[in-house]
Amino acid sequence: MFGLREPSHWLLLILVVILLFGAKRLPDSARALGRSLRIFKSEVKELNKDEKKSDEEGKSGS
């Protein structure tokens, strides 16, 4: 899509992120993002578990 294969593209992306968020807020933002992703992952896992459970109940009930 964007072709971020060259190191110069990665450096430019990192520079833009640092300019947008600031070097002081970047660790806090990364920590919050990681926490949000962990919560999202656990919720998706729970949904899949509930879906499988309801499928099994539907098959055994019919």
Report on this structure.
This protein has 62 residues and is mostly helical. The chain contains two helices and no strands. The model has no long low-confidence stretch (mean pLDDT 85). The longest helix has 36 residues, at 26-61. The protein has a domain at 23-62.
Query: What distance lies between the first and last C-alpha atoms, to the nearest angstrom?
Result: 47 Å
The major pleated sheet works out as: none
**Helix share bin:** over 70%
Please provide the count of β strands: 0
Structural class: mainly alpha
Shape: elongated
Q: What is the rounded Rg?
A: 20 Å
> So how many helices?
2
Map the helices and strands:
Elements: H1 7-21, H2 26-61
What labels would you give this structure?
0% strand, 62 residues, mainly alpha, 2 helices, 82% helix
Could you give a short description of this structure?
With 62 residues, the protein is an all-alpha fold. The protein has helices at residues 7-21, 26-61. The chain starts with 6 loop residues before the first helix and ends with a helix.
